[in-house]
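Anyone opening a protein record will find just a pair of labelled lines. The record below illustrates this layout.
***
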Amino acid sequence: MGGVGAAKTTAMPAISPLGGEPIKRADAERLAGVLKAFADPARLRLLSLIQSAPEGEASVSDLTAPLGLSQPTVSHHLRILTEAGLLEREKRGVWAYYRLVPSAIATIADLLTPPRKRPTKRTR
């Protein structure tokens, strides 16, 4: 699904701050920006609502009532999550639909999990 309207997507750093190597300043700033997008209760709820929605996607109108926030406020939070690379936005007619970017969520989880704590892939 091609995200239309992701103006400036934040790229994830390749090195974890917990990986045993010092993380570069630019990588730390990018990761902090993504984590800042996560660090808001309304945005965490938006991610949860979108993930649990039928078809795994939702429009602003689907999200305003459950959050109890105005349409402009919900749109603002969705824009921040989209710019951070956590959501994809697809325009269909007059509506825009949002869905999670699973690879972005998985990358953040990997970056924040020390290597010795990550599950290992065992081959038999």
Notes: The first helix runs from residue 25 to 38. The chain has a mean pLDDT of 82. The longest strand covers residues 87-92.
